[in-house]
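Quick one, tokens below. Sequence please?
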């Protein structure tokens, strides 16, 4: 296991060089999406609606930030259970998604798809949401604010810790 510093987005040529258990310190932009946002993303893709981001250019973080304390860019920012997003994964990967970040195991089908597509799944330690928030430089509601905590947020992170789970 090694530790790597990465600027996002991660280039596809880097993914095969990583091993399960490697620690990545991510800097750059993450896009958040939980269940409700995934439903809207998939609906848009199925209906030919262009998203305001390219899936191949983003890191998709399964989380919903809590409200920010005064003077902070966001509140606690813990990962959510990734397996809940597994039914959406085939379409997202088909449209270019290469990097997802969350918590916990993926279904056998999702794990196989991630491996076969040359994608990458990273995990963050659950229960460390306050710690993870210390690595957030900025947080803005990016898409679908009507979803509240499940809206799509754009995060800028610095040395955000995550671990390679599936490569």
């Amino acid at each position: 296991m090694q530790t790597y510093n990465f600027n996002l987005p991660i280039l596809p040529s880097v993914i095969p060089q990583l091993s399960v258990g490697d620690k990545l310190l991510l800097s750059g932009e993450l896009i958040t999406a939980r269940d409700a946002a995934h439903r809207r993303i998939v609906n848009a893709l199925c209906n030919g609606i262009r998203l305001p981001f390219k899936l191949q250019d983003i890191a998709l973080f399964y989380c919903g930030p809590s409200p920010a304390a005064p003077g902070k860019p966001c509140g606690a920012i813990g990962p959510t259970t990734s397996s809940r997003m597994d039914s959406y994964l085939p379409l997202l990967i088909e449209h270019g998604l290469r990097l997802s970040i969350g918590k916990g195991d993926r279904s056998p089908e999702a794990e196989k798809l991630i491996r076969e597509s040359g994608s990458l799944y990273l995990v963050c330690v659950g229960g460390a949401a306050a710690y993870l928030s210390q690595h957030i430089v900025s947080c803005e509601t990016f898409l679908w604010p009507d979803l509240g905590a499940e809206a799509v947020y754009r995060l800028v992170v610095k040395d955000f810790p995550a671990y390679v789970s599936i490569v």
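The mean pLDDT is 95. Residues 8 and 129 are 21 Å apart (CA to CA).
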